[in-house]
Amino acid sequence: MSAPAAVPLASPTFVPSPAVAAAGARFPAAARGWFAFGVGSLVLAGLLSLLLVVGRLPFLGWLFTDPLFFKRALVVHVDLAIVIWFQAGALAYLAWAVGSRVPRGLTVASVVLAGLGILGLLAGAVMPGAQPILANYVPVVDHPVFVAGLVAWFAGSGLYFAGALAVPAEPSAALPDDALVALRASAAAHLIALATFAAAWRTTLPGLPAIGYYELVAWGGGHVMQVGNVALMLGLWLLLLRRWSGESVVSPATIRWLAVALVLPQAVMPWVAWGGTSRPAYSEIATQLMRWTIFPVVLIVLGLGIRHVVRHAANRSAGGGWRLVGLAGSALLTVLGFVLGAFIRGSSTLVPGHYHCAIGAVTLALMTAAYDFSREAAPRALGPSPRLIRWQLVLFGAGQAVFGLGFALAGAFGLGRKQYGVEQHVRSLGEYLGLGVMGLGGLVAVAGGLLFLAVMLRGLAAWRTRSLSPSP
C-alpha cells in the first residue's frame, strides 16, 4: 500500500455544471468567514503545540524565561482547538443556510467581536507572569486581556447564534431540513451554555482560589456546550448522508422531537447556576444531564443512519464513499467514548481518554463535511482527490481512537490526569504501555490533522481562483 504522500492532491477530471459553478458566487460571505475562523484557529493551535515542543529543546531554553509560558500556550491551544473550532464550525454551517437573511450589521458586529476575541486569547499567552488555569471545558489564563478575549469571542458567537435562530433558512438542497433542525438545536444549546456561564460568573464567590473559581464558572456551561457540539455532529451526519444518498435520513418532525429531547433539559442549567455554583446540585445536575440526555438521542440517530446506509448501499456507486469513511469514524469514536465514559470511577486518565474520543468524533465529522463546504464555497477551485480525503480521515480517526485507548489503558492502572513531565508518577508496566499507545495514536492523529490543514489552507487560498474542481 502506498504512503499518503504518494496520493495525488487533486483530480481534474470533473467539470462542474453551470448551476454548481454559479453557487460559489451566491455562497454567504459570513459562512466563509466563520469557516476561515475555524480553520485558522486550528492552524494557530498547531503552531502553539509546535512551540511547546520547540521550547523543550535544551539549546533553545534561553529564549523562554517565563516558566508559565508553556502552560499558558497549552491553555490557548486547547481553547482554539476545541472551543473556537467547534463553535466556528457550527456558525459556518448555520451561515451557509441563513447567512443571506441575517442583518448585515449583526453579522459584521459578531465577526468583529469574534476576531478581537481570538486576538485577546493569543495576547493572553504572552502576558508575563499571568497564571494559567487548567480548568475543565474552558481553561483560562488569569489575566484581564485573556478574559476579555474570551468574553469577546462568546459575545460574537452568541450574537450570530441568536441571529441565525431568529431568521428563516434559505430554500436550498445544500442543507436538508433534518440537518438544519439539528444545527439550530446546536445554536440553542450554545446560547443556553452562554447564559449558564453568565449566571455562574454572577454567583461564584470571588474570593475562591483561581482554579476553584474558574472551574465553577465553566462547569455548568461547559457541559451544555458539549451538548451543542453533539447536536452539531448529528447535523453533519445527516448532511453527509443526504449528500451520499441523495435522500434525507429522517423527517423534520422526527429530528425536531429528538432535538427537543437533547436540548430542552439543558435549559434548567442557567437557573441552577443562578442559584449558586457552590451548591452540590450545580455540579451534580450538570453531570447527570450529560450522562443521561446525550447517548439516547445519539444512538437513535446512529441507528437511523445505519438503516439509511443499508437501504441505499445497493443503489450507490463508488463516488463519494469518503463521506461514509468519515461518518463511520465519527460514529465509532462516539461509541468508544460512551464505553470509556461508562468505566470512569475517579480522576484518572480514563477521563481524557473518554473526552478525546468524544471531541475526536465531533472533529472528524467537521473535517468530513469541510470538504463539501469548501467545494460549495468555491466550485471552481481545484479540490483534493477522493483518495487523499480517505487517507486523511482514516489517519485522524484511527490515531484519535488509539490515543484515547492509550489514555484509558493507563487510567485503568491508576494513572492520574492533569499531570505532566516530572509530575507524573508512572509506577506500573500497564501505565507505561498505556502512555506508549497514547503517544503512538497521538502522532498518527497529528499527521491526519496536519494533512487536513494542508488541504484546507490550499482550498482557502484557491477560493478566488478559476480552476476546476472535482466533486466525488
From TrEMBL:
Regions crossing the membrane: 34-54, 74-94, 106-126, 146-167, 179-201, 221-241, 253-272, 292-310, 322-347, 353-373, 393-415, 435-457
Keyword Iron applies: no
Keyword Transmembrane helix: yes
Keywords noted in UniProt: Membrane, Transmembrane, Transmembrane helix
InterPro entries the UniProt entry points to: Cyt_c_oxase-like_su1_sf
Protein's name in the database: Cytochrome C oxidase subunit I
Lineage: Bacteria, Pseudomonadati, Verrucomicrobiota, Opitutia, Opitutales
